[in-house]
Amino acid sequence: MAALPNEIWHQIIANFEEYIPLKTWRMYGSHLVRDAPEDLRALSLVCRQFRRIAQPLLYRTIIAGRREEDKLGQALAVRTLTENPQLGELARIVSVDEVDQHQWEMDSVLGGTTMRDIIVPALKYLDIPPALKTRLRVPLYFDGFAALGIAFMPQLQLVDCTIDDVRSPLPWMLSGTLGLEDEILRVPKNQYADYYDDEEEEEEEEEHHHQGEDDTNKMKLQNIPKSSYANYGFPNLTEVRIRTVGGPEGITPAWVIEPLLLHPTLKTLRALGTDWFDVELKNLKWPVSRSNIEHLDLTESIIDAEGLKHILIRCPSLKGLSIELASCRREMFGDYEGWDVDLDDIGDILRQFGKGLEAFDLYTPQYNRAHCTEGRLGSLQELGSLRHLKANKKELLGPQVQDLYGDIGDYRALRLSEALPPSLETLYLHWDGHYFDPKWYGRKRARVNEEVQGLILENKHPNLREIRVERRLNTKDKHKEWPVESNVEGWEVDVVDEMVREDEEDYGSILTFLILKKCL
Hints:
By secondary structure, the chain is an alpha/beta fold.
């Protein structure tokens, strides 16, 4: 039998490579299956040919989560990369979480090796200015090895990570530029002093040794071109997914992840649990610096119209924007008394600054459990580039407000055809989660069906090819979701059940979807 060429074996073995799914990126690594590395390692031991094929795949996608064994794994990975830096050159995708461990706890996990034995040689290898090494050294003892490990992977294209707190070095390590020296130098060296104990005197002495070099290092930094790259320039980085620590109660100020907006090649940023409201917006360090981001996903975020305005002005190349308002759990440890989302203001901002958007998604049910959105987005016909829209129908069109005599008056809810731009290709209507009784729900469902049918029959949107409507789970009477008499010639109808919005503490919800597709 003729031997198969390497190209075919590569296609076969590549099926065992680790995979980071986008749909469940918000689940803090609990969704990741870690069987692939063992399978690839086993294949690499079969023969030399398989080893040459499998080893690059082993290091092309690297996953380290928040499990107990990963604390040791991250430390040993940094040591391996320090001793074999060519392996880091193979990495293209990494998923890593900052491990919240103090030095003495990590030393006990490492056994005969201390964190200092790993960090000091690793820092010496990196081609970064001495002052940055000084500022990076101490945080590494408390936030794990995520930033240091990533610094040894210069060809990364996708980074999926969880940051431990506001002192995390990860965002500025991923900024792609050495333009942050002044901010790094401002960090007081003793801000971590409360964590030290008597067993760390040797490290304190080493820090003291560097204090005398600070003035010289600062002068050197001032002579570094702002556009120069170090080991962590990441010229191929195109996507970052970043989660705040603490699960559904955690929140990260926008200024912490702001350095990511500075990366020149970054196109997609997905952030879970970030605060773009009020004082945190004022704390941004580079508020007028333009970003090349094209797709921004703000999941479980605290944001209002002013935050949206800042994003749209700062990201002139933005094509896709997804906003999921946070639940009250993320408000527990901050002052958000004035966090009121006015949809009229949101709509005005979109019409004024969002004309370049091709996709927009606004999801509010979690926010509305403790708050109430006011107004409506209104007509988006001025958004001439918009092709994909996801919104709640009432929040888009407005409610039908009646007076005491049942008259609608001046505040009439818009029709879908009045609100949607002619460029629209797909429409997705979120369910608000409300359900009172079967009769009430049945009437509401019938009204939505009537409006969707009217949108199709008016035929004012020639590019419209798909409409998806979220519904309460219907396991018995799916024929009621879209009666036969509502069918429109040239459109196919399907009713399916799908799992949506899974997170770390919730398996998500199974909803029924009404799907209408234009026959091509």
